[in-house]
Amino acid sequence: MKQNPFERLPDTVEIDGAAVRVDPDFRIGVAIETELLTGEPDAAGLLTAFYPDGIPDNVEAAAEQMMQFYAHLDGGASDGQASHSSARLYDFTQDADALMASFRQAYSIDLDTAPLHWWKFRRLMFGLPPETPFMQRVHYRAADITKLPKEQRKHYRKMKRLYALQAAPKKKMTAAERDAEMIARVRKRAEQVQREIEQ
Questions:
Q1: How far is CA 116 from each of CA 9, 17, 121, rounded to the nearest angstrom?
Q2: Which end of the chain, N or C, is less surrounded by CB atoms within 10 Å?
Q3: Strand pairing category for 12-15 and 18-21
């Protein structure tokens, strides 16, 4: 049976056949994404934040499950929004104010205080109306200006410069490639942490 998209969102992952409690708050998901974009994520810090009852003994499986949860690889359909584009279109640090204003405008949700599950946050974020400040930034960043009239191209170039991401990755990759690379980096760091624990 396919997963019901309206079921209660999970707050556990399965590791070695046991359900392990996680912190599904969107702030943890944002921290994971932000940290992973640094190139050298603090795997121990991420795992500690994600597993409130302590990092499971099987650190590699814990890291893998954390990344699957972050990427919404739960065996069902993900929200899919991020996978359609190969370029980064937002940055949580750079777009924080626009995102907070957009959630307030569209949903009357205060991201400073709202308890939101990471998956629900992503669904809401990618479902923001086009007139919100966050989606306006995404629109300009994603726009293909090659077929626009000259005056419109001029305006779009200006807006693309205004909203350009400051810390773009060095190489372009699809969302799936990015997620696979992130999983590999966290897995490598988790193995290092496991070795340190065993010493």
A1: 10, 27, 6
A2: N
A3: antiparallel
Candidates 99, 103, 109, 112; CA nearest to 163 is 99
Give the end-to-end CA distance of the chain in Å, rounded to a whole number: 45
Say which residue the tokens 């569209």 belong to: 106
pLDDT for position 87: 78
The contacts of residue 35 (CB under 8 Å, 6+ apart) are 41, 42, 45, 46
Q: Kindly list the domain boundaries of the chain, sorted by start residue.
A: 12-79+173-198, 89-162
Q: What's at 141, amino acid-wise?
A: R
Contacts of 85 (CB under 8 A, 6+ apart): 142, 175
d(CA 143, CA 130): 13
- Reported as a single tens digit per residue, the pLDDT across 147-158 is 899 999 999 999
Is the pLDDT at 185 greater than 60, yes or no? Answer: yes
* pTM given for the model: 0.77
Q: Is the pLDDT of residue 86 over 70?
A: no
